[in-house]
Design a protein that fits this description.
Elements: H1 5-21, H2 64-77, E1 85-90, H3 93-107, E2 112-116, H4 122-129, E3 133-137, H5 147-156, E4 162-167, H6 179-189, E5 197-201, E6 226-230, E7 242-247, H7 248-251, E8 256-258, E9 263-265, H8 276-286, H9 289-312, E10 325-329, H10 333-338, E11 342-344, E12 347-351, H11 354-358, H12 361-384
Parallel strand pairs: 2-3, 2-4, 4-5, 5-6
Antiparallel strand pairs: 1-7, 6-7, 8-9, 10-12, 11-12
Helix pairs in contact: 2-8, 3-4, 5-6
The chain binds pyridoxal-5'-phosphate.
């Protein structure tokens, strides 16, 4: 197998783009401060985690042992145990969210999913795909679910079991929905604990919140049924991946013995990536809990410094206390495209991940340009204003 000269050149070009971009990502949640070179040798094998890691597989090249370690770690992080919960390494946050919604629909086949306006766009795809009824709940100006609006919708749909899709950090604004408020509203409307399901979408903040000194309530201890987190976001992985965990009382119902693989299965796909559990495992094993905590603290500290700097120059930037996402008014298209900043409506954001605290050069370059653009626009606006007589 060999490539033509032109095709080799195309790969070289791609390589150059990757080298130039790898540690410069500020608009999207991508941690790149990892070193997985000691795992490269596994790229030569057809590793496949088809089926359930907890059962022996007839396909020998799997990383089930490592996947189990990763599942155990996330169980600890989200206050549960392997006795109570089960989970697996997914292709990313979306698959975990789909799995949570699928379990919820199996539990309540004619239930109603409630998710806020600020919820990631993939959730709309998921509810359509799974053919579940849904209601979009209003969000407040900082991205958190409007609990009064939720209560109204719950009352209007009293005959349907609620499936709450709670955000543990929204995509654009980093808002965390308040589980206690949600549960209070459910109870107020008359639903007891056996009559609803709560899924937590912790795609980005699932690696942050557990390492805070006073974390908001978001885990199994606080009443969730399932949770999804991305592995390639704040943790860091060269291949998109994630973790989903759910109470066994929900997942056990899905398990079927599959003759072809001589094992039971309750995952969404057939073949599953066997390399990504190795990345998660390496991250978990090679860093102490204290250093993971410090990494999060450093990101939040730098995010706060960004807010202060932008504010000092008249840009109304802000962030939620528990989020590395700095939100500010949308700059010119030329600027947000140049630095690949994510934008929605009138806002843009910068996300601080591990590599940026290690080397903030690109961050400062972007901030300087944002400040300069803001200064120029403000000066032009003032110059254009009629002089009062
Ligand atoms: C809150 C939230 N949920 C879900 C997703 C989707 O996750 P993934 O891209 O890992 O599928 C994202 C991605 O940005 C997100 O921010």
């Amino acid at each position: 197998m060999s490539l033509s000269y032109d095709d080799t050149q195309r790969l070289r070009d791609l390589y150059k783009v990757c080298v130039e971009s790898q540690h410069q990502m500020l608009g999207y949640p991508v941690a790149t401060d990892y070193d997985y070179r000691d795992l490269w040798s596994f790229f030569q094998f057809s590793i496949n985690n088809v089926g359930d890691w907890a059962e022996p597989s007839n396909y020998p090249m799997n990383t089930f042992e490592f996947e189990q370690d990763a599942v155990e770690y996330f169980c600890r992080l989200y206050h549960t145990t392997l006795d109570e919960a089960w989970g697996y390494v997914t292709n990313g946050g979306t698959e975990g969210n789909m799995y949570g919604c699928y379990l919820a629909r199996e539990r309540f086949p004619s239930g109603m999913v409630y998710f806020s306006q600020e919820t990631h766009y993939s959730v709309m795809k998921i509810v359509r795909f799974l053919n579940i009824d849904y209601q979009v709940v209003a969000s407040d100006s900082r991205g958190e679910m409007d609990y009064d609006a939720l209560e109204c919708l719950l009352k209007e749909n009293i005959d349907k079991s609620p499936i709450i899709f709670a955000n543990i950090g929204t995509t654009m604004l980093g808002a965390i929905d308040d589980l206690q408020q949600i549960q209070r509203r459910l109870e107020k409307v008359g639903f007891d604990r056996e009559q609803y399901y709560i899924h937590a979408d912790a795609a980005c903040h699932g690696m942050i919140v557990p390492y805070l000194d006073n974390p908001p309530m978001f885990s199994f201890k606080h009443g969730i049924d399932s949770i999804s987190v991305s592995g390639h976001k704040m943790l860091g992985s060269p291949i998109p991946c994630g973790m989903v965990l759910a109470l066994k009382k929900h997942t056990d119902k899905l398990s079927h013995q599959i003759e072809y693989i001589a094992a039971p299965d309750k995952t969404l796909s057939g073949s599953r990536n066997g390399l990504t559990p190795l990345f998660l495992w390496k991250f978990i094993r090679s860093t102490s809990e204290q250093s993971k905590k410090q990494r999060v603290a450093d990101c939040l500290q730098l995010a706060q410094e960004v807010v202060i700097k932008l504010n000092q120059h008249g840009i109304s930037a802000w962030r939620h206390d528990n989020s590395p996402i700095v939100v500010f008014p949308k700059p010119s298209e030329q600027l947000w495209r140049k630095y690949h900043l994510a934008v929605a409506k009138n806002t843009a954001h910068i996300i601080i991940a591990g590599q940026t605290t290690a080397n903030p050069n690109r961050l400062h370059q972007v901030l300087d340009e944002l400040i300069e653009e803001h200064r120029t626009l403000t000066t032009e606006k003032c110059a254009g204003e009629p002089v009062m007589a």
